[in-house]
Amino acid sequence: MAAQPTRxxxxxxxxxxxxVIAVAYLLLVHPWLTRPLLAINADxxxxxxxxxxxxxxxAQRGQIATQLREVQAALEGRPxxxxxxxxxxxxxxxxxxxxxxxxSASPGNRSCTISNRTPLPDANREAAFPRVALQVRLRxxxxxxxxVLHTLETGSPRLFVENLNLLAQRFQQxxxxxxxxxxxxxxxxxxxRPGAALxxxxxxxxxxxxxxxQDAGQDGGPDxxxxxxxxxxxxxxxxxxxAQHEA
Length: 247
Description:
- There is one protein chain.
- By secondary structure, this protein is an alpha+beta fold.
- It has helices spanning about 5-60, 60-75, 85-105, 140-155, 235-245, and strands at about 110-120, 130-140, 160-170, 180-190.
- The termini are far apart.
- Keywords: Membrane, Transmembrane, Transmembrane helix.
- Pfam families: T2SSM_b (PF10741).
């Protein structure tokens, strides 16, 4: 006679069944069905988040366009490039701007004077933005020097102070000076618009060649050909025949 299963056997069989189902799920269902679905759900969530960010940015499109126009208008009112067309005129404008800055910081040049201002040649003429520079030397008091540098670097068009050297010393170049301050040397640099340095200040001189239809001998220049009547005439045919007969 077969033994009747006890309560303990029923729970043991139920546990074995659950274990078999769990192993089958981990080996068959999870890697082939559950994991791909979880990856798809993650991708959908990422796309939805990206879509929300894009929608938020598109909602700010009008505000950003307005701010861009304001910034462009501000930049047009404060240009970064020098307004002059050539390096020579730009160097003269830099010198005038330096003079104005010094006069503003020290009226009457009582505490700040310009010792030297020399244009510097541009070593890289093929650069996209031609460089215009002045070698400057000033003798100023400390507050006046700070005011001059602040005026030069914060004005319009944009200028740059490079290779700044400061030397504290006592001097008195004129009776109006106090005799104490800084001996300062630096390079004042600005940039022209691309291609601006190629524009000439004056029209090119006329060519030395004579116009078409005009005799080159009448030009009168040093390279002009001699007049046609100055050339030695060729011998006449009769004279040539007589010379051959005598020979």
